[in-house]
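> call design_seq(struct)
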C-alpha cells in the first residue's frame, strides 16, 4: 500500500506549495504561462534510479529550480523535494512526506506499538497542526498570522482528479495560511494531508487510517507575491506526465502483483502440506485401530495364537480383548484405552492420544493447543 501515496501525490498535487519538484532546468523556449509572455524553461522531474522523466513543468527562465527525488515512502516511486527562487526575492520549498497509522481504539493502538509499530500517531486536523506546530515556528521567525486562504480552482482540480481515478476511500486536503513579517515579506504555508480510510471488515473490526502530510512554503515580497504565486500555480496545472514513466510504473505494479500472487500460492501450498501431514497422522491412528480389530477377529477365529485369548490369558485380558481395550498406568492410576497403539499420551482430564510413532509428542503439536500430555505405561 505504501506505493500508492507517492503515486497519488504525483497526480493530485497542483500548487507551488504541494509536491512541485524537478531536476535542473535543461532547455529554454517561449510560451504563454497564462500571465505573461516571456522566456521560459522546462523543469524535468527525474527518477534518480532509472533516469526516467516522471513529469515536466514550465517556469520563467530567470527562476532557479533545484530538486531531488525522495524514496522515504517507496523504493521505486519517488516524491520530490524542491527549492525554487528568483532575483525578486521569491523563495519556495517543501518538506518530505511524513506518513502515519491511526487507530480509533487507543488500547488497540497501544497493542500495535508493543508489537513494534513505530509510526502510530492519531489523526490531526489541519487547523490543530497549524496552531501547534506552524504558528510557533513562524512567530519565532518574525511572521504574524493573517488568515486562512482558499484556492477554489485547486480544490476543484483535486476533486476532478479523485473522480477520474475512482478514489472513494481517500481524502486529500490542502489547507493554506498566509503570514507577513515586518519587512513586508508575505508567506503562504500549506499543510497537505492525505487520508486513506480502511474498511473495518479488513482490519478485524478496528477503525484504521493511514495518513500523511507534507508542508509547502512560499515567500515573496508583497509587491510580487501574487504574481509569482500565480505563475507557480499555473505551472502545476500545466504539468505534463511522461508516458515512459507511466509505462514503467505499470510494469513495476504488475511485477509486484505477480510477486504477491506467488507469495500467496506459496503460503497456500505450505498450508496444504501441513494439512496433508496432519491428515496422514490421523489416518495412521485409524489404521492402527483397524489393525487391532483385525487381530481381534483372528483371535476369535483361532488364527492368531500369539495373542490374548489363544495364549490362555486371564479372563480380564480376554474381556479387554473382546472390547478392544488396553490397560495403561499414569501417576499410579490405571486407565482403559482402545488397544492397538504403541504409545498413549494422556492429559489431566483423562483424555488420551494413541500413536504408533516413537517420535510423536503432542506437547509440540499446535493442534492440541499447548495442553500438557504425559506418556502412560502399558500394563
Amino acid at each position: 500500500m505504501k506505493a500508492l501515496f507517492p503515486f497519488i501525490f504525483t497526480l493530485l498535487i497542483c500548487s507551488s506549495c504541494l509536491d512541485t519538484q524537478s531536476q535542473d532546468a535543461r532547455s529554454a523556449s517561449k510560451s504563454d504561462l497564462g500571465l505573461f509572455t516571456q522566456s521560459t524553461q522546462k523543469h524535468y522531474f527525474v527518477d534518480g534510479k532509472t533516469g526516467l522523466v516522471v513529469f515536466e513543468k514550465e517556469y520563467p527562465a530567470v527562476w532557479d529550480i533545484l530538486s531531488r527525488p525522495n524514496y522515504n515512502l517507496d523504493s521505486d516511486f519517488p516524491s520530490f523535494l524542491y527549492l525554487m527562487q528568483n532575483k525578486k526575492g521569491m523563495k519556495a520549498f517543501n518538506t518530505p512526506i511524513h506518513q502515519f497509522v491511526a487507530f480509533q481504539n487507543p488500547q488497540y493502538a497501544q497493542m500495535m506499538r508493543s508489537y513494534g509499530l513505530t509510526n502510530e500517531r492519531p489523526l490531526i486536523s489541519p487547523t490543530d497542526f497549524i496552531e501547534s506546530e506552524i504558528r510557533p515556528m513562524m512567530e519565532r521567525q518574525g511572521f504574524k498570522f493573517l488568515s486562512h486562504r482558499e484556492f477554489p480552482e485547486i480544490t476543484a482540480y483535486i476533486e476532478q482528479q479523485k473522480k477520474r481515478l475512482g478514489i472513494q476511500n481517500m481524502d486529500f486536503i490542502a489547507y493554506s495560511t498566509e503570514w507577513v513579517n515586518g519587512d513586508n515579506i508575505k508567506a503562504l504555508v500549506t499543510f497537505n494531508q492525505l487520508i486513506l480510510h480502511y474498511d473495518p471488515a479488513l482490519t478485524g473490526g478496528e477503525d484504521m487510517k493511514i495518513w500523511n502530510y507534507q508542508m509547502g512554503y512560499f515567500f515573496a515580497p508583497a509587491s510580487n507575491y501574487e504574481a509569482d504565486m500565480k505563475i507557480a500555480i499555473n505551472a502545476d496545472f500545466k504539468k505534463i506526465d511522461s508516458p515512459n514513466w507511466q509505462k514503467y510504473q505499470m510494469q513495476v505494479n504488475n511485477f509486484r502483483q505477480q510477486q504477491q500472487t506467488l507469495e500467496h500460492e506459496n503460503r497456500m501450498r505450505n498450508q496444504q502440506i501441513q494439512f496433508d501431514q496432519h491428515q496422514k497422522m490421523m489416518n495412521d491412528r485409524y489404521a492402527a485401530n483397524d489393525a487391532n480389530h483385525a487381530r481381534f477377529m483372528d483371535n476369535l477365529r483361532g488364527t492368531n495364537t500369539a495373542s490374548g485369548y489363544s495364549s490362555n490369558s486371564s479372563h480380564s485380558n480376554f474381556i479387554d480383548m473382546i472390547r478392544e481395550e488396553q490397560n495403561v498406568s499414569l501417576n499410579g492410576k490405571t486407565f482403559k484405552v482402545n488397544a492397538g497403539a504403541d504409545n498413549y499420551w494422556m492429559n489431566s482430564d483423562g483424555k488420551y492420544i494413541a500413536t504408533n510413532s516413537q517420535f510423536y509428542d503432542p506437547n509440540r503439536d499446535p493442534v492440541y493447543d499447548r495442553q500438557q500430555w504425559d506418556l502412560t505405561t502399558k500394563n
